């Protein structure tokens, strides 16, 4: 009985109306995510002759190489089909269902774009970089949405999750990077034009790398939040004065922790304070004024939840 009570307390009891609203919200977000993903692949990436990693990247190159005879929609769906089956057996049901839905809807949007001959946005000359930027924003947003829902876009992500579940290893990220690198590297031969210089033939790879960078930054910003901050750990002999100045001039509280210098053996105090990025200069001035001999270490914090920062009530 105790175990049941514990489980019940961890699982929110949603009403039928709340479940319906949650389902509608999930479906709408999946539609937005897959539409952005497909739009980037069909209207931005393939027309501008570069690619991305994973199965989607392979689909783009096959479609370009065969002049559309092998459509992106068919490759994305067929190549992911065995991986979807694998996901249902080896990973969480929610992850498998959401990933399956994303792949099906992604294939649907691509099929729709192909049938309707959606306009291709082509950039020429020095403006080609804008194609990579736009694609990175679209794909980064699309991936962040599906990740926050608890799924993935399929492809190598499924393989990585399955392997990590069965054989936990810190090298999974490197495996995904290597797969993407191989796909992007292969694009050199797909988009190669013997009438162009080597620099122009390397442009697809450079654009792919730039797109991946923009994609990762957008994905990270949306997934982890925009409430980034800086954490300061200040070793000082004047903790009371330092804490008072931080509160008065930066309106930030702090935490004092006893600290001992292992070389000198002297007792000090470590004052920990999290501030906004724009307040770094002010904090440095406070340190120099209150205790010129203070020592500080600063580190970037991806998101802060709590009083004075992000409330954490939003999904």
Describe the structure.
The protein contains twelve helices and four strands; from the N terminus they run ααααααααααβαββαβ. With 315 residues, it is an alpha+beta fold. A four-stranded antiparallel sheet has the order 2-3-1-4, with helices on one face. A hairpin with a 6-residue loop joins strand 2 (255-260) and strand 3 (267-275). The chain is elongated.
Helices and strands, with pairings:
Blueprint: H1 2-10, H2 16-45, H3 54-65, H4 72-90, H5 93-116, H6 129-149, H7 156-166, H8 172-190, H9 198-201, H10 203-224, E1 229-236, H11 239-250, E2 255-260, E3 267-275, H12 280-290, E4 295-301
Antiparallel strand pairs: 1-3, 1-4, 2-3
Helix pairs in contact: 2-5, 2-6, 3-4, 3-8, 4-5, 4-7, 6-10, 7-8, 8-10, 11-12
The gyration radius over C-alpha positions equals 25 Å
Domain count: 2
Strand order of the largest sheet: 2-3-1-4
Query: End-to-end span in angstroms?
Result: 32 Å
DSSP E strands, number: 4
- Note the total helix count: 12
Unreliable spans = 1-11
Question: Proportion of β residues?
Answer: 5-15%
**What is the helix fraction of residues, given as a range?**
55-70%
What form results from the Cα inertia axes? Answer: elongated
Average pLDDT, rounded to a whole number, is 85
């Amino acid at each position: 009985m105790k175990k049941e009570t514990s489980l019940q307390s961890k699982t929110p009891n949603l009403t039928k109306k709340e479940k319906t609203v949650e389902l509608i919200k999930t479906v709408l977000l999946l539609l937005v995510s897959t539409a952005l993903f497909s739009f980037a692949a069909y209207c931005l990436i393939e027309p501008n002759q570069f690619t991305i990693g994973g199965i989607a990247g392979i689909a783009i190159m096959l479609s370009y190489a065969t002049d559309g005879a092998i459509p992106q929609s068919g490759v994305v769906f067929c190549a992911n089909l065995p991986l979807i089956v694998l996901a249902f057996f080896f990973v969480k049901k929610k992850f498998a269902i959401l990933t399956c839905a994303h792949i099906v809807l992604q294939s649907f949007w691509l099929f729709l774009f192909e049938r309707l001959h959606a306009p291709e946005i082509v950039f020429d000359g020095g403006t080609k970089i804008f194609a990579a930027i736009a694609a990175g924003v679209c794909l980064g947003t699309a991936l962040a949405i599906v990740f926050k829902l608890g799924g993935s876009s399929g492809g190598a992500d499924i393989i990585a999750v399955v392997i990590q579940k069965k054989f936990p290893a810190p090298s999974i990220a490197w495996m995904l990077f290597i797969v993407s690198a191989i796909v992007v590297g292969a694009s050199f031969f797909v988009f190669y034009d013997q009438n162009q210089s080597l620099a122009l033939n390397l442009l697809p790879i450079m654009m792919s790398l730039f797109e991946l960078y923009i994609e990762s930054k957008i994905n990270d910003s949306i997934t982890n939040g925009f409430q980034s901050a800086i954490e300061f750990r200040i070793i000082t002999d004047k903790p009371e004065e330092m804490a008072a100045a931080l509160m008065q001039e930066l309106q930030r509280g702090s935490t004092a922790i006893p600290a001992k210098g292992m070389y000198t053996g002297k007792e000090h105090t470590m004052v920990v304070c999290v501030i906004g990025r724009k307040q770094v200069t002010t904090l440095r001035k406070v340190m120099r004024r209150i205790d010129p001999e203070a020592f500080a270490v600063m580190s970037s914090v991806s998101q802060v939840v709590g009083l004075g920062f992000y409330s954490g009530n939003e999904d």
